[in-house]
Amino acid sequence: MRSGFVVLPDRPPAERLFARLPLDGARVIPHASGRPWIVGRWPVDAVTVAEAGPVRLAVIGDAPASRARLAQAAGRINGPADASRVLGELRGSCHLGVSLPDWSRFQGSASGLRRLFHARTDSVALAADRADLLAALTGADLDVEALALRAVCGLQLPYPANAGSLWSGVSALAPDDALQWDADALQEVRWWRPPAPELSFSDGVAAVREALLTATHGKRPERGRLSADLSGGLDSSSVCFLAAREEPEILTFRWGEAEAGNDDAVFAESAMKELARAEHLVVPQHELPDMFAEAESPVSGEMPSPLTRATARIRRSVELLAEHRSVRHLSGHGGDELFTPMPGYLHPLLRRRPVTALRHVRAHAALRRWPLRETLADLLRPSSFAGWWAAEAEALTEPRPPLRRAALGWGLGPIRAPGWITPAGAELARAALRRTAETAAPLAPNLGTHQTLVVVRSNTSTYRLLGDLYAEGGIALDAPFLDDRVLDAVLRVRPEAHAGPWRFKPLLAEAMQGIVPEPVRTRATKGEFGEDVRRGLRTHLPALLDLLGPDSRLAALGLLDPAALRVRLTGPQADNSAVQALESLVGCETWLRAPRPTPKD
Question: Quick one: average pLDDT of 92-108?
Fold first, then answer.
């Protein structure tokens, strides 16, 4: 079983739950009273605890401060108000908790990479970083509507609809909120709000550079090796060269290319020459499993994985990294989300600086083939947040819009059900989308900031599941771009200052001046990986159709029409939308078949 933990309040009834936790070989961090506070499985160096009298301060994940500084911080805590202030200072990519007598608090990260769920059983309110642990402990039933939402919408589904629990009675905590226990009462309290986008481009470059230097500091593990992706792209190269400043003997890793037109190798080799003391591991395509190989292999976790086409390949990569003694692996995940702003920034820009906004619209329309008239019309009649979700619910079973359209609404583009979903499955998903329209709220007052947070939090759910695959091989996956300090730095920059289509990721490129080699830093192309996907699908389609046949769990639940799926996948493919929907469908099916944690008797 992968790592995970449960958080218990400092109350006598919680001690009785401790014996039932579905975590073999678990470690225990106690409250000052001696009662269990945090119970879980994690790597030896993944948790830091500081004590000062009755105060316990815990960091799970990448500690944003030294052990000595954490001890000083714990010493400044004399009550709940002090605890809230101290936790606000310890930003990074981690879970943070404080325990005082009869009072405690726990929170994740603003990016959503470090999540929390909570539930109540036997009059005890408890939390965990995995919903499946709470489901096992409380006996929660599967929420078929929540599962239908993922099977129907897949990767199209944006935050917050993609981040809920799949069990009735287990609630997902918003990344902006913390859980606070006061005796027997549990409360959700707001701990983070997005900063106002006020910085100029030059000031933003300096802020982002400083945040990235901080987020990549001290990555060298106490044992084993540090590794990093080095694909030749700007994102992975930035993280790799930042880390190599302190660890020049870093191990770099990349897959070979299957696409003849993919020029990643040219830029990766250029970067490798600048890392003279590093070891470079390049795995050719013929040594990797096909895409969609072993798709039937179960992937456990609190939600279905949308990474099914590459699961076997990722697991093989982890094996290779482990053979080279890697225990921490750095990735560039989050770079696309932060440094390629969504076009929603045009809405507020049109009202503040209309001439600048029109110049941006015309450039986007020319380079991205947006229909100019329809784009301007969408900008002049923006929808409300609830209205956008309600409209997507009603249009769920309609055909996808035929034109290239800018994603100017509150989500990431149109949400449409594939034709192999049953009418009953579509109606369940529609009901869930309507409920989102009734309960969710914008993530920021500014639509540009809101869209950045939506795309970040929509994808961190996937990155958490990716981290589980690395953890299976004993490797911690680290994504410095998703450190909260980096997120804050990017959000503080006015989106229009780095969102235009004229340059590729200018904010990151300028921040990396003098760190990343010039050929990579100024690269204007992006690698293509379509051929290995097409080849893998051709090879493994029979196995996929068998997995998703009449005997599948999804068909038994009345969500999937296997005959319609077969017709769609064996016919011509006009685009990759069916393949993307298939990945999520396979993820739901294998998740349903995966073993679940069970409580102890």
Answer: 96
pLDDT of residue 1: 46
List pLDDT tens digits, range 232-281.
Answer: 999 999 999 999 999 999 999 999 876 656 678 889 999 999 999 999 99
Q: Alpha carbon of 373 to those of 198, 349, 448: distances in Å? A: 30, 18, 21
Alpha-carbon span 151 to 145, nearest angstrom: 10
As a whole number of angstroms, the distance between CA 506 and CA 481 comes to 15
Q: Is 355 exposed, middle or buried (0-12, 13-18, 19+ CB in 10 A)?
A: exposed
- Nearest-angstrom CA–CA distance, 338 and 128: 28
Alpha carbons 92 and 75: distance in angstroms, whole number: 20
Tokens, residue 194: 């997005």
Has residue 26 got a pLDDT over 50?
yes
Q: In Å, how far are 147, 149, 569 from 585, measured between CA atoms? A: 10, 11, 13
Token output for 13: 């009834």
Domain ranges of the chain: 4-190, 201-338+453-531, 347-448, 536-593
**DSSP β-bridge partners for residue 179:** 106, 188
Structure tokens belonging to residue 517:
């080699």
More confident residue, 490 or 26: 490
Q: Which CATH number fits domain 4-190: 3.90.1150.10, 3.60.20.10, 3.40.50.2300, 3.40.720.10?
A: 3.60.20.10
User: What is d(CA 15, CA 5) in angstroms, rounded to the nearest whole number?
Assistant: 15
Q: What is the pLDDT of residue 528?
A: 65
Give the separation between CA 253 and CA 282, rounded to whole angstroms: 6
Burial group, residue 545, by CB count within 10 angstroms (0-12, 13-18, 19+): middle
422 near 560, Cβ under 8 Å?
Answer: yes
Q: Give every CB contact of residue 403 below 8 A, 6+ residues apart in sequence.
A: 371, 374
Would you say residue 530 has pLDDT above 80? no
The count of other CB atoms within 10 Å of the CB of residue 95 is 21
- What is the residue whose two structure tokens read 């589980």? 468
Per-residue pLDDT, averaged over 371-375, amounts to 89
H or E, element range at 392: helix 385-394
Residue 582: which of 218, 309, 193 has the closest Cα? 309
Classify domain 201-338+453-531 by CATH number.
3.40.50.620
203-212 per-position pLDDT tens digit: 999 999 999 9
